[in-house]
Structures are given as structure tokens and as C-alpha cells.
Design brief:
Elements (H helix, E strand, L loop, with lengths): L7 H7 L3 H12 L14 E3 L4 E4 L5 E3 L13 H13 L6 H8 L4 H13 L12 E9 L15 E10 L2 E10 L4 H11 L5 E4 L14 E4 L7 H4 L1 H18 L8 H13 L6 H12 L7 H6 L12
Parallel strand pairs: 4-7, 7-8
Antiparallel strand pairs: 1-2, 2-3, 4-5, 5-6
């Protein structure tokens, strides 16, 4: 097998045993050989079941320690099946669907696994967008009466950046933001876009000052014109996002976890032209061994982003 399985048959042949899964994780975590997380030593004795003892300091390290698989009682073969299935579904998966596919007895387990995998869909140190980038915001949620402009009391506000690729959409970035103020929008642009790039926005005052932040700022005031034509890429992305949330998750995404669903949508969108399901599987596993563990309590109590004003979108 190459660095990733290229068919269902290859997947089953390589990952039907716990030993096969552990060996694959070892190669992803330590591609140049064992590296002790305590002293940095490169020599270790294998102790079985994916556990290694450093020859230098005696520290014991597992292929699962420090990854999203840490403390999981389920075998790696089950995790690998979940990742293979999740990356193979173009429209995403629900916790109910994963529970049925794996035969899990608990919906809570399926929900927890998906939340952990969504957190692994953002690669640490990923490159920012560059070149010419459209940026705009959009609200997620139902109709809201008694508000004007960019004001909201119940909806989630999402900032979106879409890189131009000729007439097509290149890579994207998304993040839930607290409001449409200058500090919130500037922070998002700085995180999503490489300095020196051209940032195209509408005439909203919150984007003022981007030039002073090191960006070329191109303003396209709406003034009664069709916003979708002025910023076509971000509007197309937002339309696809809303359709995905309604179609796959029936809109039942709580605001406090919305960022991680945005991460999943971004992961899938940026790899929409990939010809190999196995490559998505490989990339997600790469990220899964590179991020910190996320215990269940942290998943339900410490969501990322601004505190939500309502419980459901």
C-alpha cells in the first residue's frame, strides 16, 4: 500500500487488525522513527499494544497518547472505519448515521467521535489564503423581526473568505464571529488571509482600516446592486453551507459547536476535487495525531468562539 488506501479492498486488507492500525499511526506520528515526547530521544523498546519505553529516560509513550484517540476504549479498527466512512461521504455524516454504521450502542459515543474528528479537520499551522480574496459575513438562522442592518439577537454571524481561482472558487476559510465590528472582522481577516493579499469586501465600515493592517483593500459598495454579483464566490459558498447544514444536519446545529461544523464544511470544500477517497482519510488521520486530545467534558463545556445568544440555529 502507498501512503493511503486507494480502494475499499486495500482499506480492509490493511486495517482489519489492531496491529495494522497501530503501525499506521506510528508512521504518521513518527515518520522518521520514534521521538520521545519527554526527552526527545530516538531509541525505544516496544512493549506491545502500541506502547514504547524510551531508552534514554524511561518515559512510556503510546501511539494514541496525545492524539484524539487517547483514552478511547474502542479499538482503533473501529476508529479507522469511522474515518474511512466519514471521508467517503460527500455530504457529510450525522451521529445517527455513524451510530448505525458502526453498530454503536450509544448515540453519545457517535456524537463524541464526530466532534473529535471535526476538531481534527483543521491542520495545525495551515497556510492562509493568498492572492485575491473575497470576504463577507452572513447570518445563520431563521427570520428575525425587529432588527435592522447587521444587528441580530438570535442568529449566528459567520465570516467567510473565498480565494479567487480565475473564475472559480479556490480555498475558503470560515469562522463564527461575535459581531460585525472592525476588531472582529480585522481579526478574522488576519487569521484567514496572508498579509499583502488583495481583500475584496463590500462598503461596510467594519472593514475600514485593512490597508493599515497590511492588506490591499478593494471596496465594492452595494448601493442597491446585487451583492451576490459583487462578491459571487463568498455568496456561493454561503449558499452551499446553508444547504449542507439543512440537508445533512436538518439545521440542528447548536451555535456553541457551529465552528466545528464550519471546519468540516471547509475541509470537504477545499478537497472537493480530490480524486482519491483514501487521500482524505490520510489527511484526517494526519491531523488526528497532531492535535491535542479532546475529552467529552471539554466538547460539551468549552466550545470555541463567542458565547451564543440562542440555543439553536
Amino acid at each position: 500500500m502507498d501512503e493511503y488506501p486507494r480502494s475499499q479492498a486495500e482499506f480492509e486488507a490493511c486495517f482489519s487488525t489492531e496491529a495494522g492500525c497501530r503501525q499506521y499511526l506510528f508512521q504518521l506520528r513518527w515518520p522518521e522513527g520514534f521521538h520521545c515526547p519527554s526527552c526527545g530521544g530516538s531509541k525505544a523498546w516496544g512493549m506491545g499494544r502500541g506502547l514504547f519505553e524510551c531508552a534514554g529516560c524511561g518515559h512510556q509513550a503510546s501511539v494514541k497518547t496525545g492524539t484524539i484517540f487517547q483514552d478511547s476504549r474502542q479499538p482503533l479498527t473501529m476508529w479507522f472505519r469511522a474515518i474511512w466512512w466519514m471521508t467517503g461521504q460527500k455530504t457529510g455524516v450525522s451521529a445517527v448515521g455513524l451510530q448505525r454504521m458502526l453498530g454503536l450502542g450509544s448515540y453519545k459515543t457517535a456524537w463524541t467521535w464526530l466532534q473529535k474528528l471535526r476538531r481534527a479537520m483543521v491542520r495545525p499551522g495551515r497556510e492562509r489564503l493568498a492572492g485575491r480574496v473575497e470576504v463577507d459575513e452572513s447570518y445563520l438562522g431563521g427570520l428575525e423581526e425587529g432588527v435592522r442592518g447587521r444587528q441580530t439577537y438570535k442568529k449566528a454571524l459567520v465570516a467567510v473568505a473565498a480565494q479567487e481561482d480565475g473564475q472559480r472558487i479556490g480555498r475558503i476559510r470560515m469562522r463564527r464571529i461575535a459581531d460585525a465590528s472592525g476588531p472582529s472582522l480585522h481579526r478574522f481577516v488576519a487569521e484567514a488571509v496572508e498579509p499583502g493579499s488583495t481583500v475584496r469586501t463590500d462598503g461596510w465600515e467594519g472593514y475600514s482600516g485593512l490597508k493599515q493592517k497590511g492588506f490591499r483593500h478593494e471596496v465594492r459598495p452595494i448601493r442597491g446592486r446585487d451583492a451576490a454579483k459583487l462578491l459571487p464566490r463568498v455568496h456561493r459558498v454561503v449558499s452551499l453551507l446553508k444547504r449542507w447544514l439543512m440537508g445533512t444536519h436538518q439545521g440542528a446545529v447548536s451555535p456553541e459547536h457551529l465552528d466545528y461544523y464550519l471546519d468540516e464544511f471547509t475541509f470537504r470544500f477545499n478537497r472537493r476535487t480530490s480524486q482519491h477517497r483514501g487521500k482524505l482519510f490520510f489527511r484526517l488521520l494526519q491531523n488526528a495525531v497532531a492535535i491535542e486530545p479532546a475529552p467529552y467534558k471539554s466538547l460539551v463545556k468549552h466550545a470555541r468562539g463567542p458565547k451564543p445568544k440562542n440555543r439553536n440555529l
